[in-house]
Amino acid sequence: MPSIEEIRKVLSTVQEPELHKDIVSLNMVKGISFENGKVDVAVELTTPACPLKDEIVRRVEEAVAPLPGVKSVHVEMTSRVASSRAVSGKLPIEGIKNVVAVYACKGGVGKSTVATNLAAALAAEGASVGLLDADIYGPNIPLMMGTHDRPQASEKPDKMAPLLAHKVKIMSLGFLTDANTPMIWRGPMVHSAVQQMLRETDWGELDYLVVDLPPGTGDAQLTLIQSVPLAGVVFVTTPQAVSLADSVKGIQMFRKLDVPILGIVENMSGFQCPHCNTVTNIFSKDGGKEEAKDFGIPFLGAIPIDPQVVSSGDGGIPVVLQAPQSPVGQAFRRLAEWVAANVSVSNFVPIP
Ligand code: ADP
After folding, report:
1. Adjacent-strand bridge partners of 172
2. What's the rounded Cα separation, in Å, for the pair 215 and 233?
3. 267 CB under 6 A from ligand 1?
């Protein structure tokens, strides 16, 4: 019969696939018990949306099962999301562990679609999630999340209560403006409006706050990016060369501002005909993937063109919830998992 210490010893040979350290020194093993031939191992992940959950379970089972007297191995998964490291010169937001921005260099590439599906997928995996719509050109997150109310005062003094849809807490620039009156946003105005939404919303405790940034590299965008303590950016592009040429400017902007890019998503990547299954690459192919390679940035995956994205977005239910098993639903889910994993990796403080 192995002792608990012997089981712990074999677990210290199990590598966490992303952090490349063993799960015991990473302090992920929270409990071990052994009774009547059954071993129970409690493993704490760095995010409930871990894409490598199944792989970790497999590795634990493979390590423990050969020990003498072991008849079965059961792995219990829990999670605790770590906070991103303090960003120098930027005030952290109380209760919010990680602010993740979604960005595109130009409009219409699916940035808000990615932001809503990312937030909904993370929340569906069990994370506590907020979504802040800071797109000055078209704050349409409330529509895409199916909320039509206006935020009310919170019980906390001087705070607004966010709206809640699909387990996501939502605040939008659209709530502060009149939809029918065009507004010209200048840098300082954007700065104060976004600071107000960030810091005067009663977010509670959040693992992730997803921020839908305005597209482009203008003054308003720069002011906004500089004023938010970002864990990193999800960069949305289409596979097409024009979009990619713009992307280079955006990548350079984030590098200059010292904001990490968590990865590039290639949206509107190929359309599969529902009748004959032929894939047509309407906006060309693999551009985002190649760009990620050229710039040494992680590739977060390709999202196909699918009319369900449009109908579910317009209907206020993100496609990752409306059609979770469809190829596009699965692609958004994988995207969310890799974003969460890359946030964990960037929060990881190496063990000396
Ligand atoms: P952005 O925020 O970049 O301006 P949106 O997210 O508003 O772009 O998307 C623009 C339009 O493209 C919306 O009508 C949206 O439903 C549609 N769209 C986005 N991604 C896809 C996709 N993968 N397949 C089909 N339509 C999409």
Report:
1. 133
2. 13
3. yes
pLDDT tens sequence for the chain (352 residues): 889 999 999 999 999 998 889 999 999 999 999 999 999 999 999 999 999 999 999 999 999 999 999 999 999 999 999 998 777 667 788 899 999 999 999 899 999 999 999 999 999 999 999 999 998 887 889 999 999 888 888 998 889 999 999 999 999 988 877 666 666 767 677 788 888 889 999 999 999 999 999 998 888 788 888 888 899 999 999 988 777 788 888 999 999 998 999 999 999 998 888 888 888 888 778 878 888 898 899 999 999 999 999 999 999 999 999 999 999 999 999 999 999 999 999 888 766 6
Q: Which CATH class is domain 4-79?
A: alpha beta
* Structure letter (DSSP) for residue 56: H
CATH architecture observed for domain 99-347? 3-Layer(aba) Sandwich (3.40)
Domain ranges, ordered by start, for the chain: 4-79, 99-347
Type of residue found at 15: Q
Q: Which residues pair with 31 in a beta bridge?
A: 42
**How many Å apart are CA 83 and CA 43, to the nearest integer?**
19
Asked if 28 and 16 touch (Cβ cutoff 8 Å), the reply is yes
Q: Report the separation in Å between the CA atom of 318 and the middle of ligand 1, taken as the mean of its atom positions.
A: 11
Q: Whose CA is nearest to atom 5 of ligand 1?
A: 110
The residue nearest atom 9 of ligand 1, judged by CA position, is 110
For residue 279, give both structure tokens: 């894939």
Dihedral, 157, 159, 163, 167 alpha carbons, nearest 10 = -80
Residue type, 31: G
Q: Which residue has the tokens 């940034």?
A: 213
The DSSP symbol for 213 reads: P
SS (H, E, C) 260-287: CEEEEEEECCCEECCCCCCEECCCCCCH
Ligand 1 pocket check for 97: Cβ under 6 Å:
no
